[in-house]
């Protein structure tokens, strides 16, 4: 379970997230929606320990991200919204580096690297430098690295951006399988139809505040039964 308790993050001249609370239960695919500048990425960076929390707390399966940093981060697999990292490394060097960070045994990593990169169609490019990869290939190598240590909690910031249809379908199936094992997938997206296809629960954030949290049925019942998610999203964020 992820418990976000009244977190606030302020930057000079702006409060990006204000008194935000969310509870994400196990076994769920949880969609995090909001317009640009709503506070999505700031929230995710606090959840992953990249940004310090000014007020409030976040726990990952009972581990406080601010106090039990390593224990909490061991549970997380994080895909950032930008995949242009470690560009001077070869694909295989990057994956072995990530495996080293998470103490993935040699035999396990070799099997996982082979399986994941073949699934994503980048196995043949592992000896190439990441800077030569297309945007979609960079996204695939980052996702492969995240899955190497089999984390309980996936936190994915726009994970489908740049993926070809086959890889996008594959990742969505992986997300479903992960949730079916009683684990958590938390992801932000602008692709509203993906939310309707995938999500068990949704939160909509605007101007640093949660406007709604619940499942799709509850959201549609709260408003108009004949509205689609895009109409609801526009209504909830019309003041953004």
List keywords for this structure.
240 residues; Rossmann fold; 10 strands; ABC_transporter-like_ATP-bd; P-loop_NTPase
Describe the structure.
The protein has 240 residues and is an alpha/beta fold. It has 2 domains: 142 residues, P-loop containing nucleotide triphosphate hydrolases (Rossmann fold, 3-Layer(aba) Sandwich); 76 residues, no CATH class. Helices cover 38% and strands 25% of the residues. The strands form 2 sheets. The chain has a 6-stranded mixed beta sheet, with helices on both faces. It has a 4-stranded antiparallel beta sheet with strand order 2-1-4-5. Strand 1 and strand 2 form a beta hairpin. Helix 3 runs parallel beside helix 5 and helix 4 runs antiparallel to helix 5. The longest helix is centred in the last third of the chain and has 16 residues. The chain is globular, with a radius of gyration of 18 Å. The model has no long low-confidence stretch (mean pLDDT 89). Keywords: ATP-binding, Nucleotide-binding, Transport. It comes from Halobacillus salinus. One of its GO terms (molecular function) is ATP binding. This is ABC transporter ATP-binding protein. InterPro entries: AAA+_ATPase, ABC_transporter-like_ATP-bd, ABC_transporter-like_CS, ABC_Transporter_VariousFunc, P-loop_NTPase.
